[in-house]
Amino acid sequence: MSELSQSRSEAPGPLAGLRVLELGNFIAAPSAGRLMADFGADVIKVERPLGGDELRRWRLHEGDTSLLFRVMNRNKRSITLDLKQSEGRAVALDLIRRSDVVLENFRPGTLERWGLGIEQMREVNRGVILARISGYGQSGPYRDRPGFGGVAEATGGLRHLTGYPDRPPTRVGISLADSVAGLYAVIGALTALHRRGVTGQGEVVDVALYEAVYSLMESLTPDYDAFQVERERTGSSLPGIAPSNTYLCGDGRYVVISGNGDSIFKRLMRVIGRPELAEDPELADNAGRVRHAGKLDAALSAWTEELPHEEVLQRLEEGQIPSGPIFTAAEITKDPHYAARGMLERHRVTITPGQEREVAFPGIVPKFTEAPGRTRWLGPELGEHTDAVLAELGIDDIRRGELRDLGVV
């Protein structure tokens, strides 16, 4: 690494000086906090004194803290605080007084019951930005319903389109709704901070999990409302766009081929030895190709099934056709492009007391040229920074001991 690159990677991130208080747990609010922490914000994660965030034990293979937690909570400071006790509420308000953004993903009304609603926050900090993530939002007839990401994917329209038409709806293998909602929370918080810089006023950012999913659904409802077109599950193909699908190769591996641009389609047909299809006027545009999507998929499958996937991909790359393998985790950890882009950060992590391993963690997204984000540390131990944060609030050793005796921290 050059001296310039090293100095940039160690420099404060573009959000340095921003204080974020994270009151959430699980995935949604913590994913927003992670993004802000990656770029230098001081994110203080509040956890329950006993047990902490339940994510610590999700996908737990060894030890008492999952690597999922280490990923979702990197670069944050962890403090323990019982928000249901008046002493805990007082400490939280002191933290809010010194914070720019508060993140939370409780059911609507929870903070208000604890005496930590937006009115109480504004009494101590008029300009605070409160970013709230919930299943159905802070208003509307469903606001009080509990909602996790899987339910949001169903309500938001995604599950109805995911899978094969002769099988039940399925899901992707990640917490998609929570992660997308976290992105919207960050966008909303940063937008509100920009506005505060002009007006001096704070803001409440209301992110609903189901709306985060619904926002990804493209023309789902306009197509229905205008033309009564109800999209259905179509397996691995992309409706209304052809050819774009997953194809089996001769060695049993699958590849994804997206040959749906007009000029790309012509090149693709020549690569697979079907020049007559490249010149067929019926297939000159996407509308015609969609009408003949079955014939095109059959032609592509006949070609891929005769070749190993590596040769398929090599020929497609030479023809400048968008295509790629379906990677497993093992293949990702060995891929040179992932490594070259800094997407495989290796960190030593404590698995159990006295046992450490060097593990590949995901890198920072997006890339910045001048002030990049970086992983300063992995998700912390429960309450690792409690003493330091309370000391910053002017709470001395004696009072911290009293708070511990009361179970507040």
Automatic annotation (TrEMBL):
<dbReference type="InterPro" id="IPR050483">
    <property type="entry name" value="CoA-transferase_III_domain"/>
</dbReference>
<dbReference type="InterPro" id="IPR044855">
    <property type="entry name" value="CoA-Trfase_III_dom3_sf"/>
</dbReference>
<dbReference type="InterPro" id="IPR023606">
    <property type="entry name" value="CoA-Trfase_III_dom_1_sf"/>
</dbReference>
<dbReference type="GO" id="GO:0016740">
    <property type="term" value="F:transferase activity"/>
</dbReference>
<keyword id="KW-0808">Transferase</keyword>
<protein>
    <submittedName>
        <fullName>CaiB/BaiF CoA transferase family protein</fullName>
    </submittedName>
</protein>
<dbReference type="InterPro" id="IPR003673">
    <property type="entry name" value="CoA-Trfase_fam_III"/>
</dbReference>
<dbReference type="Pfam" id="PF02515">
    <property type="entry name" value="CoA_transf_3"/>
</dbReference>
